[in-house]
Amino acid sequence: MTSIKIAPSILSADFASLGDEVRAIEAAGCDYVHIDVMDGHFVPNLTFGPPVISAIRKVTDLPFDVHLMINPSQPYLEDYAKAGADIITVHAEADVHLDRSLQVIRGLGKKAGVSLNPSTHPSVIEYVLDSVDIILVMTVNPGFGGQSFIESQLEKIRTIRSMIGDRAIELEVDGGVNTKTIAATVEAGADVLVAGSAVFSGGDYATSISALRSAIK
Ligand code: DX5
Ligand code: ZN
To answer: Is 166 part of the annotated catalytic residue set?
Structure first.
């Protein structure tokens, strides 16, 4: 089995202690820090932007996996690169020129990601497969943590895994991932799992992360 990465979403962290929360998930053994940027327009919720990302950049060297749920995203890509993102993921639904956004992200020296809402067909990424480093399949409608996993997305994960073929592209899944849903998600082909409430709602983050990893086996 390829190695599976766990990316806790700080959307479910205690914002009053964000630096300490990031230190705590690093100590608990996570692989990426998943950062949900929402604009109150593309999704019905508002979170944070580059200044908050720059602030937490100082507390860890873990890769920052920045999930942009903003429309437009293209004018802001450089700001997120400068703030310390390592992966910048845009939604296929957010900008008209997806291929250009991906080229801009790579041009900034960052890994380029594309995310698909649950209702979006995987064919929208068919012609950008050579321009992406990570594909993010949403298994909830983006906007909030703590929603239920949408089972119909398992088939989409399988389809995208086969579209990827032998390319070095990570397949990330976000939304409703917990100890009950993670095994089927990995079986379908995911190798990076975002988990918000599953990590932050339990008291001990190391226990929650190892429970996720053991639920896969
Ligand atoms: C939803 C976000 C997710 C969310 C996941 O729009 O993109 O990253 O925080 O939260 P859980 O794991 O609680 O579904
Ligand atoms: Zn996310």
So the answer is: no
